Structures are given as structure tokens and as C-alpha cells.
Amino acid sequence: MKNVTLGLIGVGRIGVMHARNIVRLSNTAGTDRTITLKLTDVAAQHAQTVAADLGAEYLPDLDALIASGIDGLVIATGTALHPEHIRAGVEAGIPVFCEKPVAVNVAESLPVLDFIREHGGVVQIGHQRRFDAGYLEAKRAFEAGELGWIHSLRAVTCDMTPPPVEFLANSGGLFRDCSVHDFDILRWVTGREIVEVYARGSNNGDPAIGAVGDVDTALAVVTFDNGMIGTVSASRYNGAGHDVRLELQGSAATLLVGMDDKSALLSAEPGVSFPDGMPHLTFAERFDQAYLSEMAAFIELVMGERDNPCTPDDAVAASRVADAAQLSLETGQPVRVTGASALVG
Predict the structure, then answer these.
(1) What pLDDT does 167 receive?
(2) Please, what is the end-to-end C-alpha distance for the chain in angstroms?
(3) Both 108 and 140 in a single domain?
(4) 93 with 163, same domain?
(5) Are residues 10 and 150 in the same domain?
(6) CATH number of the domain that 240 lies in?
């Protein structure tokens, strides 16, 4: 029996989800390992409560967490703290899992990439869609040539309700916070680079979102290095439910990720009741299994049982597209994606 001890920093909404998934994995029958969880957060009382609820150990800060003897570090803090915490884990010589993105923007990410390379660090970035069954099937079908040549791709990510304006004020914008998942999955599914973006946006919801420099709805037209074109749309106000889809239209067939009984849409055709299930309300429900599989992959990475499924270079490549989309949104002009790297993973 092998024992793995994970340390987690940041127990906000997504941090608690990761902590619960670690506990779920530790209770999975038929495995040859045990998983111990230790955690910390600047909100000490909240962190202590979470630790007590999950049977985890609470430590007062990141230094104490690392010094306690952990095999891997899970980072679920705010984006601005990601570089500092990644460096701490890498410097300690332990594998790191960090929620996307590496940093607020590409410029701030590049020194982190240099640090990781110089220290031979192992860092997995959290792009959970790579572990979702639908996207995995889309990638398989694409690579097998079952769709023919692709003429159009359409990616959609729409939240049912917006997060707090205080969060949006420091999120980097809708493209960096939300659509970056679509930019990543488009690269991952197709194996192609996005080389140009043209973006537009609007604010018809809470005026406070516009006041902090963001939009509540946006659309980007993307061009790939082989001439394929696609669209990436996002909104904070999709009252029908949490809507995440990817449509791949090819010369031979069309495949749609995210079309099931819980799809957040209705048919206008007479006599059609599909979909008839209760739509997902949040991303956590939509990607529950994907998040669990993502954390299982990190544990395998910690134990040396698999390659890194999402490297920092992957994440920064998606962030380059998000930065270009944000610049296009601000200037009203198409923007070339500079410094695109070869697809990894």
C-alpha cells in the first residue's frame, strides 16, 4: 500500500471542491494507495472548519504546509498568488497542481515558466475539460478522421449567473477568466494553433460589470494555423442554466459535445421534448466527474505513473489567445496571436 500526502492551499469554492475530490479518491475501493490531505488558507477559521469536516489536517500557512512533508501541492488560491505559490512548490521539489491560469496574463506567466524550467519543476495546470468524456470523444473522433475535414468549430461557455463583481474586477476579463477554457480545448482537440482573434462584447446586465472594465457577453472569431475558423462565445447571464458546448462540423459528419438531457436549451420544433432533464446550474455540476479525474491524474503524476496532462506551456498558449481576444475587444481590431508554441500533451 502506497501513501500519498497532498497539501492544498486555498479553500474557497474551487479549493473546497478539490479537497472533497481528494477525500473521495482516498475512499475509492480497490486502489493500492492511501491519500492524506493537509490544507491551509489565510481565512484560518474557515480552513479549520473545512479540515475538520473532511478529516484533513490544518496548517497555519504554506511554509508550514510544505515543511510538514507533503508529496504534492494543490494550489486553489486567487490568480494573483499563483506565481508565488507555484515557485514555492517547485523550489521545494514537489509536483504542483495549480488552477488555471499560471498568472494574470502572459507577461506575468513567462518568468514563472522560466523558473519551472530552471528548477526542473513538475506543474500540472487545471484545465478540467481535457478529462470530460465528451471532449475526450471529440478528440478521438477528430484524430481518427471520422468527421472529415473541419470547416467550422463553435465553442460556448455560458454561466447561469455572474460571479461577484469584486471577483470580476480582478479576473482579467471574460476571455481570460471564462473563454480561456474554450481556447485551451480547441487547441487540445484539434492539435492546431489559433493564430488570429477578432472579438466583440456587450454589457446589458449589471452596469457594475462594465464599471470594473469587463463585459458580460462576448464573441470571438478565431482562425487556426491551417485555415480552420471557429467562434467562441461566452455570457454571464444564461438564465436557462450552465451551458458548455463544442460543435465540430466536418465534411463527413458533425459532432456536438454537451448535448444531453441536461443541456440548457429548448427546441422550438413541434412535438420535440428533448432535452427534458434539469439543466446544470454551475460548472461544478457540469464537470463533476472531470474534476475528479483531473485530480486522480495529478495523484498519478505525483507517483510517477503518468505524463503531465496539462503543462504550464499548454496553459500559457491558451492565455496568449485570451490576451489577444481581450486586446481585440478593447481595440475593435483583429489581433494576431504572437509567440504561439507547439502543442504539448
Answers:
(1) 87
(2) 30
(3) no
(4) no
(5) no
(6) 3.30.360.10
Where is 44: in which H helix or E strand? Answer: helix 44-54
Work out whether the CA dihedral 163, 187, 336, 319 comes out positive or negative. Answer: positive
Residue 307 lies in a domain: no
Distance (Å) of CA 6 to CA 75, 126, 295: 11, 16, 11
Residues 231 and 153: beta-carbon distance below 8 Å: yes
Burial label, 150 (beta-carbon count in 10 A; 0-12, 13-18, 19+):
buried
Residue 273, φ and ψ in degrees, nearest 5: -105, -10
E runs forming strands in the chain: 2-9, 33-40, 57-58, 72-75, 96-99, 123-126, 150-158, 194-202, 217-224, 229-235, 243-250, 254-257, 335-336
C-alpha distances in angstroms, 242 versus 8, 64, 154, 236, 339?
Answer: 27, 38, 16, 9, 33
pTM above 0.90, yes or no: yes
The set of cell numbers assigned to 69 is: 512533508
Domain that holds residue 80: 2-127+294-302
In a domain, 18, yes or no: yes
Predicted confidence at residue 171, as pLDDT, reads 85
1 vs 107: CA distance, rounded Å: 43
Q: Within this chain, do residues 174 and 276 fall inside the same structural domain, yes or no?
A: yes
Dihedral (CA of 157, 99, 129, 289) sign: negative
Same domain, 209 and 226: yes
Helix/strand/coil for 146? coil
Phi and psi (nearest 5°) for 86? -60, -45
The CA-based dihedral angle spanning residues 270, 271, 276, 281, taken in that order and rounded to the nearest 10 degrees: 10
Alpha-carbon distances, residue 193 vs 9, 94, 125, 187, 224 (angstroms): 33, 31, 19, 6, 6
Measured in degrees and rounded to the nearest 5, phi and psi for residue 293 equal: -65, -35
CA angle 211, 173, 171 (to 5 degrees): 95
Q: How many residues does the chain have?
A: 345
Q: How confident is the model over 135-168, as pLDDT tens digits? A: 999 999 999 999 999 999 999 999 999 999 998 9
